[in-house]
Amino acid sequence: xxxxxxxxxxxxxxxxxxxxxxxxxxxxxxxxxxxxxxxxxxxxxxxxxxxxxxxxxxxxxxxxxxxxxxxxxxxxxxxxxxxxxxxxxxxxxxxxxxxxxxxxxxxxxxxxxxxxxxxxxxxxxxxxxxxxxxxxxxxxxxxxxxxxxxxxxxxxxxxxxxxxxxxxxxxxxxxxxxxxxxxxxxxxxxxxxxxxxxxxxxxxxxxxxxxxxxxxxxxxxxxxxxxxxxxxxxxxxxxxxxxxxxxxxxxxxxxxxxxxxxxxxxxxxxxxxxxxxxxxxxxxxxxxxxxxxxxxxxxxxxxxxxxxxxxxxxxxxxxxxxxxxxxxxxxxxxxxxxx
Length: 339
Ligand SMILES: Nc1ncnc2c1ncn2[C@@H]1O[C@H](COP(=O)(O)OP(=O)(O)O)[C@@H](O)[C@H]1O
Ligand SMILES: [Mg+2]
Fold this sequence. Notes:
Layout: E1 4-12, E2 15-21, E3 26-30, H1 37-49, H2 57-60, E4 68-74, E5 79-84, E6 89-93, E7 96-98, E8 109-112, H3 124-138, H4 140-160, H5 171-207, E9 213-218, H6 224-233, H7 235-241, E10 252-257, E11 260-261, H8 268-290, E12 295-299, H9 307-316, E13 322-326, E14 337-338
Parallel strand pairs: 3-13, 3-14, 8-12, 12-13
Antiparallel strand pairs: 1-2, 1-4, 4-5, 5-6, 6-7, 9-10, 10-11
Helix pairs in contact: 3-4, 4-5, 5-6, 5-8
This protein binds adenosine-5'-diphosphate and magnesium ion.
């Protein structure tokens, strides 16, 4: 289950030179705020997913340095080297170079950041991004279709802002938005059903009571024809506003607790337990769908959880490789690296 064995960084954010041996089931990294904990997880994520969860290469490049390098050693004797020279980034895997991380080398990750704790009550776009990232990991095609949708949407929005257009000018973009959009809806609804299948059981296992929860898709669950019709019907409105008012780029997700909207009805603790449940489900679904055991990255979340939930977290992920960062040492844990 040890997937990541070692992490070496040069000029990666605040790290000029950094070396971490993490060839064990659980690695605990301790350091003050600003000591570079998140940056280490960022490098691991970059090696496994091909992109960072928080910034672009120019931001990652250490101030005043002219290159960064990250070397991640994996259990199957594979080594992923990422180099950025200020302009261009390359991935090198066992001597083979490419501009992107090849699909076959991508590896599932469950990332748990402090912000995730507030997902239930955060903005629709935050929730949309959250589930988009998850669904992209579950299936590569989701990301490809979403990329195509976003491109078609941008073109449609650009046209809507032009002075002289007619209904007909939008037609081909409407068709594309409807085609990709309806497919995205299907993915979202299907993936949510998989999550919801497990949600209440796993929640009850954490909370030890009879409460129930699920996640609802707040969007129009329509087929391609109806989608297209909606776009056509909104022509006048979209023209006046200058953007596309209907579509999957505006949909949202709602957490439901005991059949009520969780935001506003569930307590702080209940919200946190729901997010914990979601994280455990993510790991299970990724393992099922991708066929690889995800690496679990827990970034500074212990301070957000009480001891009961901390224990649950460690316990539930005990069969996965965990890399954990924290400012304080959680009870009964051994420190592997101090920054
Ligand atoms: N490109 C960069 N060059 C140098 N320092 C950076 C760069 N990007 C971020 N930092 C700094 O690195 C420090 C560590 O960031 P981070 O990994 O988020 O620390 P932690 O998670 O331990 O709080 C922060 O103080 C941040 O300002
Ligand atoms: Mg941090």
